[in-house]
């Protein structure tokens, strides 16, 4: 593909990847904002790890996008501001609800990457498809890590 949009689905793929990148920026910012607001030390550690791990996911997605001919964004101020607002509101909305939203967002992103994988494999971009499959698995593991906290009995120290 290398920068040339030739197939009807290519433009949609690139736009979906751009949106996925913005979502990754938001996730990274959100985990950074939420971690210090959580009282449970182990959950705070999980959120800090999710924040740190997000850097590699963003780098990997940006590399795929560059291979496809895009110059991906390096950050999103809007996503940082929205992440701050959501984290600041978490005591009012309840952290359990916020964790549920995060878990569902990670699951959704996993599906996006799986779709990117399927499309890229179908058009013969096997290395890029493999990278997307790995990103999908990464997001699914994160969703499961968050879901584990939701499966615990209600806690007041989240």
Distance between the termini: 46 Å
- CATH class type: Mainly Alpha
Q: Can you say what the CATH homologous superfamily is?
A: Ferritin, core subunit, four-helix bundle
Proportion of residues in β-strands: under 5%
Q: Which structural class do the helices and strands define?
A: mainly alpha
Short description:
The protein is mainly α and 158 residues long. The protein has helices at residues 8-34, 41-67, 77-93, 95-122, 126-150.
Could you characterize the architecture of this molecule?
With 158 residues, this protein is an all-alpha fold. It has a single domain (8-150), classed as Ferritin, CATH 1.20.1260. The protein contains five helices and no strands. It has helices at 8-34, 41-67, 77-93, 95-122, 126-150. Helix 3 packs antiparallel against helix 4 (95-122).
